[in-house]
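thought: fold this chain, then report.
action: predict
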Amino acid sequence: MNNLPRICWTSSALIALAGMLWGLQMAISGDHSNLAAHAHLSLLGWVSLALYGTYYHLAGVARLRLARLQVLFAIPGSIIMGIGIAIAHQTGAEELAKAGSLMVIISAALFAAITLTSPLRINNGG
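observation:
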C-alpha cells in the first residue's frame, strides 16, 4: 500500500483528537466562542482527510502526483484554517483564515480533478 492513505488517516485521527480536546476545553470553560473554528477543524481536518485517504486506498490512485499535492494542501490548510478562524473571532484578523481557506479550496479542486480524470480501480474482491 502507498503511504498516502495512511498519512491521510493518521492526520485525520490526530486532528480529530485535537478537535475533541478543543471541544472539551470549551465545555469545561463554558466559553464556546471558538465553536465555528472547532467545527471547521473537525469537519475539514477529520472527516475530509479520512474520506480522501479512503478514496485513495479504494480507488487505487494514491500513487498519483496530483493526489500527493492534494494532500499537501489539505492537511496544513485544514489546520491553518481552523486556527485562523479562531484568531479571526478573537482579534478580527482574518489573514490566516483566508490563507487556510484558500489552501482547502485548492485541495478540494485538486480532489475533484482527480476523481473526474482518474479511472477507478476498486478491488471488489473478484
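thought: worth noting. The CA atoms of residues 40 and 82 lie 6 Å apart.
final: C-alpha cells above.
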